[in-house]
Amino acid sequence: MTSKLINHFVGKELQHAFGAEDPYYFIVEETDTKGKVTSKKVKKEIPKGLSNNDINVLKAVKRRAYYYELVFNLCGFNCGITVLIGLIPFIGWAINLYLGLQTINKCEKIDGGLPNWERSKMMANLVADAGLGFVPVAGDLAAAVYKSNTRNSALLEKFLKKRGLENLQKNGQSTTSEKHHWLGGGANKAQVPASQNATVTAPNAVHTASAEMVHARPAQVEPGHL
Predict the structure, then answer these.
(1) b/e sequence 40-77, b meaning 16+ C-beta within 10 Å
(2) Are both 58 and 14 inside the same structural domain?
(3) What is this structure's pTM?
(4) For this UniProt entry, which segments traverse the membrane (predicted)?
(5) Do 105 and 49 have their domain in common?
(6) Quick one: DSSP state of residue 183?
(7) Whether residue 198 sits in one domain with residue 144
(8) Are 80 and 70 spatial neighbours (Cβ–Cβ below 8 Å)?
(9) Would you say 77 and 18 are in contact if contact means Cβ atoms under 8 Å apart?
(10) Domain edge (last residue) among 138, 161, 184
């Protein structure tokens, strides 16, 4: 029944457009030998290269998003406690707004806090969700589809994933440079000119030796020395 109502108000296309991704799983589609397409859930991994604090914050935000917006499954539609809270007139809207702010505040606990741009996107999601939820019934339904907390969880994960990759790259670069230095990178640079000098001076040495031999040969056949 809930799925029919959602399709009636927003349609499948809008549901996919507004729907937020699951913080714990992503969907993988597989095609068997008969051409039948099936989908399954694959659990997401925590991004690598993060500090313990960033990992703990990300886990806490994911957990909030899950219970707020995904813990229940009603006729194939995932929703959370915010749907039930939103049914309370006026007070429910304010409580959900407060919960959304708390989620963003939790995101701020990462190392160095959130960049201004990421914070602005999260606040925009919350404002959009609150605006939808302010409309009775239909607005609550649209807010249940929009899922601002889950969206903000995905934004945090995307940002931390980028940070983790940058940290791994930095560690890789520093390790490479240290390894190069430990193997004697400076000595290798010194050996190159030496080898170049050897190739340059070797012909000179041969030329000098050849010249000496040329001068020596006439001396061996001079009549005065016979």
Answers:
(1) eeeeeeebebbeeebbebbeebbebbbebbbeeeeeeb
(2) yes
(3) 0.64
(4) 70-99
(5) yes
(6) T
(7) no
(8) yes
(9) no
(10) 161
Burial class (CB in 10 A: 0-12, 13-18, 19+), 196: exposed
Cite the beta strand spans of the chain per DSSP E. Answer: 25-31, 37-43, 72-74, 77-79
Residues with Cβ < 8 Å from 40, sequence gap 6 or more? Answer: 27, 28, 30
- Domain hosting 61: range is 2-161
Render each residue's pLDDT in the chain as its tens digit; 226 residues: 444 444 444 444 344 444 456 766 777 777 877 878 877 777 778 899 999 999 999 999 999 999 999 998 887 788 899 999 988 888 999 999 999 999 999 999 999 999 999 999 999 999 999 998 888 778 878 888 899 999 999 999 999 999 999 999 998 844 343 344 333 444 344 444 444 444 444 444 444 444 444 444 444 444 444 3
Chain centre to alpha carbon of residue 98: 29
Q: What angle do CA 54, 72, 141 make, to 5 degrees?
A: 100
Query: How many other CB atoms are there within 10 angstroms of residue 130's CB atom?
Result: 18
Amino acid 91 reads I
If you search the block for the tokens 């929703």, which residue do you land on? 79
115 and 205 share a domain? no
One domain, residues 11 and 81: yes
Cα distance between residue 166 and residue 17, in whole Å: 30
In the block, tokens 């000179």 appear at 204
Residues 157 and 199 in one domain: no
206 and 130 together in one domain: no
Task: Map tokens 């925590």 to a residue.
Answer: 46
